[in-house]
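[worker-b] picked up task from shared queue
[worker-b] task type: protein-ligand structure
[worker-b] ligand name resolved to zinc ion; SMILES cross-checked against name lookup, match
[worker-b] sequence length check passed
[worker-b] input payload:
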Amino acid sequence: MKCPVCGCESCQVLKSKGKKSKELLLQCEECGNIFRETVDLGKPTDCRVVVSEYERSHKDFIKIYPDEVLKVEDVLDLDGRPAEITSIENKKGARVNRSQVKDVETIWAHYIDVPARVGISVDFRGRILSRKVEVDREFEFTVGDIVKLENVLFKIKSMKTIERKMRKGFAKAWVVKRIYGTPIEGKIRYKYDLTSKMVGTEEKEEL
Ligand SMILES: [Zn+2]
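[worker-b] inference finished, payload out:
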């Protein structure tokens, strides 16, 4: 972008429109001349995406313009399904939070149109009741919640999230991997019932 009057290369963008090619209205910062320029964004390129759904993942490709910038937490349209970017690997092999498409080697993403799958372990003095539930991704679990699961009432003692173990506070279901509970006796009012959210059958007992 060079001013046609004075040849200066620092210009301010006043207006920008278009998708495949951008039509810019520029003002020279040196002489104040206002001029138009069209920037070709090039053809969309195939960018590799590894997309996961629970424990499984598969490779896919998405067409994006090389000049576009991708960021972690951006949502992509993968064959009609929304997938959120969790990590970006650039061509130097580094994991970054943002990158221009032309420097991207692989995008890591997960589908966000599926419920969160959370493991539950309730400790009956060494005998562990283990279940899996599927809940809305935005559902919040809080340490201390009283929960009903079939004929058991338990209190959330701690939670294991993607990053750490929590002994207080709350977390959105999609970051929670497992909930640890202690059984509760007697008639206590529970906060929510997860019985209808159970999936699969009994999993391996873990201690
Ligand atoms: Zn100028």
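[worker-b] attaching auto-annotations
[worker-b] The chain has a mean pLDDT of 90.
[worker-b] releasing lock
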